[in-house]
Design brief:
heterodimer; A: NADH Oxidase; B: about 190 residues; alpha+beta; 7 helices; globular
Chain lengths: ~160, ~190
């Protein structure tokens, strides 16, 4: 599908179906998504995948979902590099969201206060020179987009220099 | 072009040709890009646009202000500085993006991330229409004179400039690390 034909509600569903999410599909989509622009080809990202096969490891931190993808960003000492790297990871996340949407895989893109707390993030294997850029809650939604949903008016603040 | 091909084939374009860029197209693509984003609060980010030779020249003056006034900058021959500036004033359009910092780190990150997401969709939508872009966050330009020039407010941060134009030739790709090599699966909490 062409990107300009991609339509629908980009907000994740309020609830997911039980249907599991395949690791292979996530890796396939990620291998496209990593073609995000990133300064100096530093590729400042890393991925941690968790599904509910081993119990609900995100309990109390995240909403229920069949699978989670933690996207980590490397934390450089240099402030400008750190910003560029976060921006690069945001582009990767955007690529992933678009690709998932095309596959009818629903994504809730979340950023919460606990992700800034190393004592919590280290439980998931986040290293001291990394931080969580987002936790994606992944799954299939109960109701597919029908094509007649009214999308809200887009707000663009656009001024001339 | 499929979505995956589009994402893989997009390149950063440092050299564009002189074909003008239509402001209405830029606005149309920005609106489309916003629709590909989950709802964000209105006013969490905004765009300032330079699309005329006059505004481009002003923008490039702001970008170079700190450098041209620095000790090192004063040593750079005027002619060389002009060549430097011309590289950017020759680019037909510039989208400057800033986001609202909000009351806390979480809001700041969320607004910044949303602005980046829109910029990436905008880059992809542009590529579909033959537009090339360069996302500029050069630290050299990030000084007070530049921030004042673009009208950055105290409650805002600079996200980046997308320099936009049509191109004759796209650079070749550079190899990327497969996701499998940056991938860990959690097996539940160890006890």
């Amino acid at each position: 599908m062409k990107l300009s034909d991609l339509e629908g509600d980009m907000d994740g569903p309020s609830e997911f179906l039980e249907q599991p999410v395949s690791q292979d599909l996530i890796l396939e989509l990620l291998n496209h998504a990593i073609w995000a622009p990133n300064d100096g080809l530093r590729e400042p990202w890393r991925f941690i995948f968790a599904d509910n096969r081993y119990g609900d490891i995100m309990q109390g931190l995240q909403e229920q979902a069949p699978a989670y993808l933690l996207i980590l960003v490397k934390e450089e000492a240099d402030q400008y590099k750190r910003e560029e790297d976060f921006a690069a990871v945001c582009c990767l996340i955007q690529n992933f969201r678009l690709l998932a949407h095309e596959q009818s895989l629903c994504v809730r893109c979340t950023l919460h206060e606990w992700m800034y707390d190393p004592s919590r993030t280290e439980m998931f294997g986040v290293l001291s020179n990394e931080r969580i850029a987002t936790v994606l809650e992944l799954g299939y939604g109960a109701n597919q987009w029908k094509g007649n949903t009214k999308l809200p008016e887009t707000q663009l603040h656009f001024e001339l220099l | 072009m499929s979505l995956a091909e589009l994402i893989r084939e997009r390149r950063s374009i440092r050299k564009c040709n002189s074909t003008p860029v239509d402001q209405e197209l830029v606005v149309e693509l920005l609106r489309k890009a916003i629709r590909l984003q989950p709802l964000v609060e209105a006013g969490s980010w905004r765009v300032v646009y330079a699309g005329t030779p006059e505004s481009s020249r002003r923008l490039v003056d702001y970008m170079m202000q700190q450098m041209s006034q620095s000790k090192l900058g004063k040593l750079i021959p005027g002619k060389l500085m002009e060549v430097f500036k011309k590289r950017f004033t020759d680019i037909p359009a510039h989208v400057i993006v800033m986001s609202n910092v909000g009351p806390d780190r979480l809001t700041n990150d969320r607004n910044y991330a949303a602005a980046c997401g829109v910029m990436q969709s905008f880059q992809l939508l542009g590529w579909e229409r033959g537009l090339g872009m360069l996302w500029d966050t050069e630290s050299m330009i990030q000084h007070k004179g530049f921030f004042n020039g673009i009208g950055l407010r105290e409650d805002e941060r600079f996200v980046g400039i997308l320099h936009i134009g049509y191109y004759d030739k796209a650079p070749r790709s550079r190899k990327r690390t497969p996701a499998e090599q940056k991938w860990t699966v959690l097996r539940g909490q160890s006890t």
